[in-house]
Amino acid sequence: MQWTEASATKxxxxxxMSDMPVTPINPRTVRVSPDWFQRYKELCHTFTKSLSxxxxxxxxxxxxxxxxxxxxxxxxxxxxxxxxxxxxxxxGGELSTDNLFMCYTFPLAQNLDRFIIEQSGNETVxxxxxxxxxxxxxxxxxxxxxxxxxxxxxxxMAANIASSxxxx
Length: 168
Prior knowledge:
The structure is a single chain. The chain has helices at residues 5-14, 36-49, 55-59, 65-72, 105-117, 138-141, 149-166, and strands spanning 22-25, 81-85, 100-104, 125-128. The chain is α+β, with helices and mostly antiparallel strands. It has one domain. The N and C termini lie far apart (54 Å).
């Protein structure tokens, strides 16, 4: 059954991602370069190093200091985090950082896979397309008035890294 934007949005609400924007595409299989995976790994390295401008989202991810630093330095992606394509390569997506976003593997990436698979065979497929480089559902970003010293400290570290990268 062909989904509409309203039915896609409703399904995302059921999957606890009511704030996830969607983009329609008409999936047409295209040839993917044989070296795509090697290029993807290099792109992921570049992508993670670019996350220093996402300190607010990173601070809310409950990463330890070592995980946080490894991620920002492009060394390692912490467990339970996934880098996803906004538009899959097989459907014409580009190998570029603009076509990537990061989210928790469980349950978010798994639910996003389910969301796309449920549309299998449809003429138009609604793809998840978060506004930022890191997707955290709105319900996980709401905080109380008490503050978070770890988040504040990690935010400060990320800001220092970002400013050092901008200096020649």
